[in-house]
């Protein structure tokens, strides 16, 4: 039930003292044509309403959450403690620089650490999320080419296994997208890449490991092909959790990168944010970075790069998210960062190995942080789809993995267990997947009905898409 439906006239929980100044109301032309609809409830009713909603939501703290390509890892509570310190929460972005030296040191330290992890030379935390970071990185590439009067470069190469935001970001930056197919091994088709690499290419957008969880063995050749034709290489950092502290994108030949601070570095990214899509770059792009960057030793100050593309967000990004990420990096340290990455890879390979005797793996080889299953054969034999299995997982206390992505794998389920899950949790999840496979053979109809333990059962997604109800109709 909506909070508006629980409303009753006259109820409330706020007691205002009598007004001791003259009441001034807007003129008739500035007034609303109808009264503002606000729910009227007691404090008890409000508390119960939001508690009820909280019980219906699901997060990493509720159980296994293997959402592929999203790195839904546990967020240590010490991160929240540090981000709650008064010295961080009780500041204002318009304060003079000399009064917030500690906060500037946080920004400078995060830049130093993330540049070390990624192999970049400068980094900004201004972008608010991953796609925002993608757009920022592409604007850096565009500014670079324009500074050289190389305006014929109007295309961005994007592999067919890329994240859906990649072509969208390239289009928003004013580029046309050239899609290249994957080869049989799930990696970039080198010959197809060579065929499109020309003097009209501004750059390549790629994540490594890629969206099917594989590290491209030809990555140095790929980035060289793009560089040789005059383009730049952009690294989508969504999958950095698989290589952080072990391999640097800068060493792979990438010129610019975005990081999902709200994934890889354990700051929450549920509920719509806030997030941070930090963008790093090599020296050749540093002069174009968004304003402003932090410089200085004894006294730190904000500096606008010489040919800055401007501000990508008001002020300095989501600062407290950055505090949480810095806490995570300092907690793990130089040894802990690569250990977390190795554990993520180990967990993914353990799960894949325990399931590949019954489920078809899209690419039956050592994976990185995630693996992709194709349920195409299961659907053909039993009628049970990837959607059916995903919905049934909910009834078994587990959040579904990513469904029907990447698009190059039919009936895909993409599983990313992350490093924060124990062997016992993985074994329980494996047992559930195996149980559902057996159920698909014996009672497929039951899986078509899943989920049956949730407040709302299987939704008519086609009907919702074609006939959406976007506004609440007042009685």
Automatic annotation (TrEMBL):
Its cofactor is pyridoxal 5'-phosphate. The modification N6-(pyridoxal phosphate)lysine is found at residue 263. Residues 29-294 form the Glycine cleavage system P-protein N-terminal domain. One of its GO terms (molecular function) is glycine dehydrogenase (decarboxylating) activity. The keyword Oxidoreductase applies. Its EC number is 1.4.4.2. Residues 340-441 form the Glycine dehydrogenase C-terminal domain. It catalyses: N(6)-[(R)-lipoyl]-L-lysyl-[glycine-cleavage complex H protein] + glycine + H(+) = N(6)-[(R)-S(8)-aminomethyldihydrolipoyl]-L-lysyl-[glycine-cleavage complex H protein] + CO2. It comes from the Bacteria. GO terms for cellular component: cytosol; glycine cleavage complex. Belongs to the GcvP family. C-terminal subunit subfamily. The glycine cleavage system catalyzes the degradation of glycine. The P protein binds the alpha-amino group of glycine through its pyridoxal phosphate cofactor; CO(2) is released and the remaining methylamine moiety is then transferred to the lipoamide cofactor of the H protein. NCBIfam families: PRK04366.1. This is Probable glycine dehydrogenase (decarboxylating) subunit 2. The gene is gcvPB.
